[in-house]
Amino acid sequence: MQPAARILIAAGLVFGGASQGIAGAPEGCTRIADIAPNYAITYGAAIQGLFDDYATNGGSAGCVDCHFAPPPMPSAGLDLSAGASWGHLVGVPSSADENVFYVVPGRPEESLLFRKVNCDTPGIGARMPLDNYGGGLQPEQQALIYDWIANGALPGTSATVFRDGFDIRGFVP
């Protein structure tokens, strides 16, 4: 995904939304257009790694702090724990609206997951992590989720080689 494409898509999110089914256009979205795209993302190390611990301040905070099984969790019925998250996200309708999918491969602008981590008002519910828990996701982390979805939301690693070692948590393949 070229940076210019991110600008156009971000403009679509800000100026009216580009998604089928999402109730309202997102507002207050973080700009990620200037962040270098990542074409090779390892789901387990990068995306699941964010779900497990996205804190960059030396602390520990992750999506799985709220989105895990067993009952009474996961929050909103979404289990983001290792081994469960991909199957609960990709091509799966949101528990809030069956016409809105958490992840639409190749379409981050239509994916509720990206909107939830990128926009103050994502169209459904609130920005995640809720109340900026653990400091929230940094723009580079949001861009990583965007790029993973844009590249097809694969469960493993894409065939492309890491061209710049980009991983916000310091993982080196």
Automatic annotation (TrEMBL):
This is Cytochrome c domain-containing protein. It comes from Dokdonella fugitiva.
